[in-house]
Amino acid sequence: MTLLRMLGDGVFDAFAMFWDTLWALFLGFALSGAIQAFVSRDRMQRMLGDHRPATLAKATFWGVVSSSCSYAASALAKTLFRRGADLTTSLVFMIASTNLVVELGLVLWLLLGWQFALAEFVGGAIMIAVLGLVGRRVFGPSLAREAMSRLRAGEGGDPNQHGHTHDHDHDHDHDGSVLDASADQPLRRRLRSRQGWSDAAGYLISDLTMIRKELVIGFLVAGLITVFVPPAVWQSLFLTGHGFWSSLENAVIGPFLAIISFVCSVGNVPLAATLWQGGASFGGVVAFVFGDLIALPLLAIYRSYFGMRVTVRILVVFWATMSLAGLAVEYLFRWVRIPQPQPLRAMVDHGPTWNYTTWLNLVALALFAVMYWLYRTRRDSGKYAKDPVCGMQVEVANAPARREHGGEMLYFCSDRCARHFDERNTTMTMQHDPDGSHRDPVCGMTVSPDTAAASVEHAGETYYFCSPGCRTAFELKPEAFLTAS
């Protein structure tokens, strides 16, 4: 088989997996968008001040209805902790908002089988129960105080101040929140309003925008791996034929692969399907799916939030609970005689066909067009803003980070995006030469504002170009050139 043919087969496998999950992706993100637009979170914030079982159950529920990608979930967990929520409870919320959500369960069902979708929720409950038992010992009061001190110092506040000192940590007397920005309207009226559904559409579009790279990378890498990586490679990674010890090794190695994969959220499900096809155990695949919360970029974020000591404990505790949950689910399902699903290959070999999936996809695409129209034509209420880095919709009143730039206030879904913006803005400031000329961000040519062939206003900054072609390239994807500069 030629290299070109293998590449083509890999891309086709990736598209087949995407096509089989298209309607589920839309349904999951649409439900998530509606929940984020209509469900209040302010009262949730006041209910998570300890780690009693009832509080952990509330954190789990609010995490499920606040589904988001791993990066946004980590930022929200940090915000909850900073505003008074218990550290263990905040971590439980983060687990629930990434691993116990509708879109993840639907994609698992379609790519791997209903058994894996069920394992997501059973294993997630086991993870939360274990974290609730060990969290009070591992993340005790002294460590929580250390994390809070690091967090406030990193945000520019006084580490010895126990009040809400940070400049964007606003409290509100009304019952508004990140999820329900319309506390002045009854929920029933908002459900019947176009503005409410326009806000839900805004969350849908921004969530898809935010994780589009993870989705593309996840499907594409999974498709290519099914073609290029022989089964012997997976067999060397995942032990077989040694009973319990094989299952234990698989459950331990699963999160490690998640750590080094750099793919989070729903994007790691296609990779999980590839591992299942390659011979990984049921528990090993489940542990891999849960492992998106300890991918290397997220560990770096935890370190910047809470410091190294807390991050190491998060890594150890999360890895252990993910492995334990995967192993427990595997043996629990064996005990109740739940059959294991068939490998992925039987599905992708046939590719997309004209069946019920096709009809569901067509309906999903039509509904997506309606939601996109609502998003594009909605009235700006001033309650939401778009993160200029990742594209996520952020509620202005409770944005995790904000910056003033060019006389305009910008809002971000997380400190990670705010730092990216700071780095980009610093780099672009250096693009201004002392004589007043500028550098074209696409080709790097020095241009004068008076003689530039084109210019564009972006995020409060004016950029000048040597030609209309460079301007067009910049307008298609400005973040690519700004990051690269």
How would you sum up this structure, described in words?
The protein has 485 residues and is mainly alpha-helical. The protein folds into two domains: 373 residues, no CATH class; 55 residues, no CATH class. Helices cover 64% and strands 6% of the residues. It is built from 22 helices and eight strands. The strands form four sheets. A two-stranded antiparallel sheet has the order 1-2. Strands 3-4 form a two-stranded antiparallel sheet. A two-stranded antiparallel ribbon has the order 5-6. A hairpin with a 6-residue loop joins strand 5 and strand 6. Helix 6 packs parallel to helix 14 and helix 14 runs antiparallel to helix 15. About 7% of the residues have low confidence.
Q: How many domain modules?
A: 2
Counted by DSSP, the helix tally is 22
Largest sheet: 2 strands, antiparallel
Largest sheet, spatial ordering of strands: 1-2
Q: Give start-end ranges of low-pLDDT stretches.
A: 156-184, 345-350
Look at the structure and give the mean pLDDT.
75
Order of helical and strand elements: HHHHHHHHHHHHHHHHHHHEEEEHEEEEHH
Subcellular location: Cell membrane
Protein name: Permease
Organism: Gryllotalpicola reticulitermitis
Domain TRASH: 387-425, 440-478
Task: Looking at this protein, list some descriptive labels.
22 helices, cell membrane, Ferritin-like_SF, membrane, 6% strand, mainly alpha, transmembrane, 485 residues, two-stranded antiparallel sheet, 2 domains, two-stranded antiparallel ribbon
